[in-house]
Amino acid sequence: MKKIDSNKFKSIIIKAFELLNEKRDVVDSLNVFPVPDGDTGTNMTMTMKSGVERVKDTETSSCYDVAKALSQGTLMGARGNSGVILSQLCRGMSKAIKGKDIIDAESIRDIFTVANKTAYKAVMKPTEGTILTVSRLMAEEANNAFENNIDIDKYLYKIIAAGHKALLDTPNLLPVLKEAKVVDSGGQGLMFLLEGALKALNGEIDIETDLSEIEIEDLPSKDYNIDLSVSISEDEKDDLLEKLNELSTSLTEDFDNGILRLSFDCDGIKELLEVVSNYGQVLTMSVENTNPDVLNNIKVNKKPSKKYGFIAVSRGEGYDKVFESLNVDRIIAGGQTMNPSTEDIFKAIEKVDSENIIIFPNNKNIIMSAKQACQLSDRTCRVVETRSIPESFSALLSFDEDESLDENMENFNDAIEDVRVLEVTIAVRDTNVNNVEIRKDEYIGIVDNSIVTSKKTIEKTARETLEKAVDDDTSLITIYYGEDIEDKEARKLQKFAQKKFKDCDVELIYGGQPLYYYTITLE
């Protein structure tokens, strides 16, 4: 095969997704820690699902339009670090074939090269031995193996073979993988996608289209200033601008990577929204009523009601109540095995009525999605890089309404640095980590992301974890117990800690979190 048209390209993308979805549990199981929260496969699958839904709804003869739809869908649907990196690989693919109706071998070479560069740029501190390494070595092979008139399937096979070799070498580049005796999970997910793509070159699959109707709310027909961002194809952009010129004045526009940002004055908002929705999907909109006589009748784009607003990712009934008591504006359900998407966080940002918005992702695998959501929004928002829910409690308690955003961010980060996090969960496989021998279905104690003990009961594990972590600098121990722990069991652990560490205050709070029997903070 020498060329790929748009229909074949759609088939390749969908088949790639189907194989990843089929193998998602395999990818989830490639967790460095033997804990029941592996979610790389789930995150990559959900990210691709958002992209594939856009691809199915795209009627086009252009491969570039298909790639752009995939890029836009994965960008908004990105979940977890692996999902964000995958969305950037898709974005790079779209950039590599901009304006092309057909994909040939040269396009394949460009796709791997540009996708790799785009993904590396998106990660502040790239780590070798990960999906990035697999991507980079495939890009190198794409350049080394390229020949004029080479068959695409043979060419892609060579590139994928290089990817498999790179994947198998990831444990030699990242010691934690070698110790856990696993390959990088993100790299494995990427290889499943590419294997699915290769299979699709030899067979078609059906593409079903299911378009949902757009509901438009009738707003008063007055004088308004509109700021709008729309997801739209480059081909339809000019047609939309021509229509808007008929309906508005003072039109300014900026177009980048499928996102059209507009500012203009108009009268009929309903008619305008109907026009825009016929060409693309509205992502954000702010409306300012420029007629003072009816200003009080409009509730959009009013001056923020307060200086600061907060968004937190939480998973657990007890945790949610604590966040409510700390006046958090929006609580996003999520955490381990259930990472919210970039779009979930973006929507939460748009709903917070404040001048500044501060986001607590509360999981290392949600930080990149939160930052990506901030980049998509025109609101002033910052991400506090919390890696656990209790860290955000400490950060929020340091908040000062009268201080600037930068000063508060400094306070938050200082508060987080003073917190140590302990966790107790169950092992899902036999392994040896940090010289700790672990057996499946035993309980493990974790201190600051390092496994320190493994015992046959939850109580013994929790006690030994505390004994290994509490030191002379500890003055406060806070025990958050999960949904599978009875109150009396939790109180028993509290009494042990009060007796064992007499110089420390020991607090007990119901977190209601799944998977982790206890999460304990030391301050």
TrEMBL record:
InterPro entries: DegV_domain_contain (IPR050270), DhaL_dom (IPR004007), DhaL_dom_sf (IPR036117), FakA-like_C (IPR033470), YloV-like (IPR019986). NCBIfam families: YloV. GO terms for molecular function: glycerone kinase activity. GO terms for biological process: glycerol metabolic process. PANTHER family: DEGV DOMAIN-CONTAINING PROTEIN DR_1986-RELATED (PTHR33434), PHOSPHATASE PROTEIN (PTHR33434:SF4). Residues 7-199 form the DhaL domain. This is DAK2 domain fusion protein YloV. It comes from the Bacteria.
